[in-house]
Amino acid sequence: MTKRYFEDFEVGQTIELGSRTVSEAEIITFATEFDPQPFHIDPEAAAASFFGGIIASGWHTGSIFMRMLVDAFLSSTESMGSPGIDEVRWVKPVRPGDTLTGRITVLELSTSKSRPHLGILRSRSEMLNQHGEVVMSLIGVTFLGRRP
Question: What is the rounded CA–CA span in Å between residue 109 and residue 124?
């Protein structure tokens, strides 16, 4: 695969990141380690909760997104890291059996004034369920190398 640089992207461009189905076992395993709230790890407690059943941790959804982002985008670019993300929103619960699809849309492109070899890509990232509903969104910034 050809390496992509900052110059290979344009405002408005959407990049599809692929899909993944989430199982109840995966949800419980992740949450047991990293977010052990009852509605993530205990089917009986989850059934009696506001959610009416097991749901994935938002951090789990974010981790799935990150894997998709690396596999479908960052691994084929001249990625130079990120200063962070903004506006993380967990819009709808992710439930066992949901198939999540990731995408990013380029919002802004600028070059670094202090490091001219560096481009800055600002994007809106979304995870959607199998019904096309947004379950998670965030605004991200990625540093990309400029074409030599």
Answer: 12
